[in-house]
Amino acid sequence: MRHQRFRGGLAVAMVATAAVAAAVGTAPASAAAAGCRVSYTISSQWQGGFGANVTVTNLGDPVDGWTLRWSFASGQAVTQAWNATVTQSGAAVTAVSVSHNASLATGATTSFGFNGSWTGANPVPTSFTLNNTACTGGVGPTPTPTVKPPTPNPTPTVTPGPTAPPATPPAGTVRVFWLRPTDVPYDQRYPDGIANVVREAQRYYKQELGKTFTLNNPVVEVVTGEHDSNWYINTNCTPGGDRYWCVVGNMHQELMRRFGIRNPDNRWLNVGEISAEEPGQSGGGASTGWVVLSGHDADGAAGINGPMNRWYGGMVHEIGHGLGLPDSTSTDGTPMSGSFYNYPNTHFTQAQKSAILNGPYGSFFS
């Protein structure tokens, strides 16, 4: 673990981000049906656990409230879900819409995600029903027809332009940003993945402290940057310095200026990730009130840069710094040391728990 002081006044505890093995997962499995289309994607997988994203497209009449059902074939179990209320009885899983995504017009799409457990195998479910109507195309890739039928006008993929600041979230929350430089294409895996990582951190703090912090809706505020990647990499750099500090420092300064955030700010604990870094110069860190991470961590959250437990553990570690905890020794078994690489087999000490709850953001926990 290395420590450096960021020239903008942000003291950061750097987490080494060496390259790791390729992520375990599967490609999305898409299916067409008379009434619905389902895409079930294993976004990340680690020993005994996995994360999944489910996208539902209504191809039938408009619905006001939906229920998606499927069954697991190998004893998997849902442990946590978001954007749907998910229950399980034996192998049978039921996902019910929540208020903000209950209405689906013809052709409309919504998505939700969950974490689960598995032993032995983790195959993709083979069938789904939406409001008791079978999505009869299954979940395998749709075959190319011999004669191409007429297709409706597709919904265009729109890359968001510069974003205006959203409504200010309530105080006492963890505020999360993904900053996308102007030359980086929009990719939904990034806001979804970063949201999944901070939700897992939220779950872990609840496990360890009996209380946890609140995330906003949406969890991740997507920000189109004011500059291209090279600007973030090469501007405001100290000659001979570690260039990733330029990247996260430029992001930090831009987010503070555009969103009126201080360093630190007692209204929010802030997390920023930027999809930019010089090859081989990844990094980031945190100080009280702020977590700042470069492209390596954003890629990891998106599921394309190694096993997810490393990125879950890294986020728990950096949020710990944001809450005011210092680094501890490299082998002490706590997430504030190199032991975070063993996530989830790492635990806070009682002293660390007390320091969090009695620290500058202790009132955020409930």
UniProtKB/TrEMBL annotation:
Segments of skewed composition (Pro residues): 142-169
One Pfam family cited in the UniProt record for this chain: CBM_2
Annotated keywords: Signal
InterPro entries for the chain: CBD2 (IPR001919), CBM2/CBM3_carb-bd_dom_sf (IPR008965), CBM2_carb-bd_dom_sf (IPR012291)
Sequence segments annotated as region (Disordered): 141-172
SUPFAM superfamilies noted in UniProt: Carbohydrate-binding domain, Metalloproteases ('zincins'), catalytic domain
Location of the CBM2 domain: 29-138
Entry annotated with the keyword Translocase: no
Entry's Gene Ontology molecular function annotations: hydrolase activity, hydrolyzing O-glycosyl compounds; polysaccharide binding
Signal sequence range: 1-21
Any GO BP: carbohydrate metabolic process
Superkingdom of source: Bacteria
UniProt xrefs under PROSITE patterns: CBM2
Protein name according to UniProt: Cellulose-binding protein
Lineage, broadest ranks: Bacteria, Bacillati, Actinomycetota, Actinomycetes, Micromonosporales
